[in-house]
Amino acid sequence: MADAELEARILFVKEQMGDSLLILGHHYQQDEVIRFADLRGDSFKLSKLAAVDASCRSIVFCGVHFMAETADILSRQDVEVYLPDLAAGCSMADMADLLSVEAAWHDLAQVTNVDDLMPVTYVNSSAELKAFCGRHGGIVCTSSNARAVLEWAFARRDRVLFFPDQHLGRNTARRMGISLEEMTVWDPREPLGGNTPERILSSRVLLWKGHCSVHQMFKPNHVEQFRRRFPGCKILVHPECMMQVVDAADMVGSTEFIIKTITEAAAGSTWGVGTELHLVNRLAHENPDKCIHFLSPMVCMCATMFRIDMPHLAWCLENLARGTPVNRIKVAEETARWARLALERMLEVR
Ligand code: 13P
Ligand code: SF4
User: Fold this and answer.
1) How would you list the strands of the sheet with 205-208, edge to edge?
2) Are 12 and 21 in contact (CB under 8 A)?
3) 149 conformational bin, left if phi > 0, alpha if psi -120 to 50, beta if neither
4) In this structure, how many other beta carbons lie within 10 angstroms of the beta carbon of residue 347?
């Protein structure tokens, strides 16, 4: 089907369903999709939007699976959430599963008092892991509030088990003054995560060995090359980038922070931005008075975000309007109950 026809069909359903339909779009979505979103945001903003919308009956989530699950957990009971392509997952979220986290918890209990260990999951994780945190007094964080969440955790317990993104955990903890000697990586494939009992006992932060395959493509030498090419430029990166990249950058922050910083930057300023390609290209387009460049010479785009395209969106919307919905994301009630607790703790953290 030609793009013009797909566009007309998507707009027709939006018109037909009116306020009963809410299309949410994450900033990493491709342009051809994000333009149909009623509301855009990073994962924190979208979580809050799903929690407060009072009029919609259906949310079509243009993003990835864990985001749709979060929307299902936080939205009203009578709201149904759909993901246009079920293959839109997150490779980082897949790096920690419930069985491995439960096994880690069990192993850690042999070495330390787990009542003093706070599980913190990045929102990029399955609902089951959020529920694990809910059951164990723990909490969820996003890249927008990771520091406030870690402060919340350390106000209550001595140690944190942070999953699945080691980089967000490490970058955030370091900015709070926690040294590298006080952190260790937990490799779920190794006995005791690849640690000695002494190493665990001397660590305040245990970092799950997971990463984002997109953000880990940015390397410190990209920062050096960029500074040589554009003297006087500023480097702005997402905290899922490795520590050496974050250390070499001028600024680090979540997707919303990156957008705000570029939008408010002085005309004529030059920026190297280390985050997902579609967002950087859109920022360059929307800020023609500034020089916005992608930090890496390689293409780093989120292939799973990219799975949401016009054909899938049109198919999902038309089936919804016809009363034959497809790709509903429904978290099992017991899981949702505990996951909601961990998410609500996050939403209360300032
Ligand atoms: P944000 O929390 O900044 O939206 O990031 C989500 C994500 O998946 C980044 O890779
Ligand atoms: Fe997951 Fe990375 Fe894609 Fe974000 S950019 S959704 S962390 S794979």
Assistant:
1) 139-141, 117-122, 159-163, 205-208, 183-186
2) no
3) alpha
4) 14
**What tokens were used for 22?**
């809410």
State which amino acid sits at residue 158: D
Neighbour-count burial of 165, counting CB atoms closer than 10 A to its CB (0-12 exposed, 13-18 middle, 19+ buried): buried
CA distance 101 to 262: 38
116 C-beta neighbours (distance < 10 Å), count: 10
Query: Which pair of structure tokens corresponds to residue 323?
Result: 């009363």
Residue of 213, 218, 254, 255 to test ligand 2 pocket, by largest number of atoms within 8 Å of CB: 213
Segment 282-299, tens digit of pLDDT: 999 999 999 999 999 888
Q: Verify whether ligand 1 is closer than 6 Å to residue 142 (CB atom).
A: yes
Residue 310: strand, helix, or coil: helix
Work out the number of other CB atoms within 10 angstroms of the CB of residue 296: 22
226-255 pLDDT, tens digit per residue, is 999 999 999 999 999 999 999 999 999 999
> Could you tell me how far CA 294 lies from the centroid of its own chain?
20
Q: Are 211 and 185 in contact (CB under 8 A)?
A: no
- Please tell me the pTM assigned to this model: 0.96
Residue nearest to atom 5 of ligand 2 (CA): 302
Region 149-171: what's the mean pLDDT? Answer: 98
